[in-house]
């Protein structure tokens, strides 16, 4: 088939498809149902992941202030590049730490709603030294 004939063939095959509105697709609504144990587990998992990012941040602190081995241009350029990459990595870790704590907070709020109690703040849970939501709350 030459180019135009092929193009016309594709258009004719797809023409009815698009004119019938099938390209819009259909969506169904779904629901999620979590029990108390699952919600507690999700809060704890997100907190653990956040703590892992926090540990990585601490371990990567030196990556944001690299000094070259010499005073020459090449050493300084390499140190500057390493520092720049270290800062970007640190920003990545910070963003992911915040995301994880936000997710933990959302699940904690859902658990609190489920249990009918006042909302607790995940940052308070982190400071208390306990791992995740408290039993009986």
Question: What does the model show?
Answer:
The protein has 137 residues and is mainly alpha-helical. It has one domain: HP0062-like domain (Helix Hairpins, Orthogonal Bundle), CATH 1.10.287.850. The chain has four helices and no strands. The mean pLDDT is 80.
What's a quick, concise take on this entry?
The protein is mainly α. It has helices at 3-19, 36-59, 73-115, 122-128.
Main traits of this protein?
137 residues; mainly alpha
Total beta strand runs: 0
First and last CA, distance: 71 Å
The percent of residues in helical segments reads: 55-70%
Mean pLDDT: 80
* CATH superfamily grouping: HP0062-like domain
Q: Any idea what the CATH architecture is?
A: Orthogonal Bundle
Q: Domains counted in the coordinates: how many?
A: 1
Question: What is the count of DSSP helices, taking H or I runs of 4+ residues?
Answer: 4
CATH topology: Helix Hairpins
Query: In percent, how much strand structure appears in the residues?
Result: under 5%
Residue runs with pLDDT of under 50 for 5 or more positions: none
Taken in chain order, the helices and strands follow as HHHH
CATH class: Mainly Alpha
Summarize the SSE layout with pairings.
Layout: H1 3-19, H2 36-59, H3 73-115, H4 122-128
Helix pairs in contact: 2-3
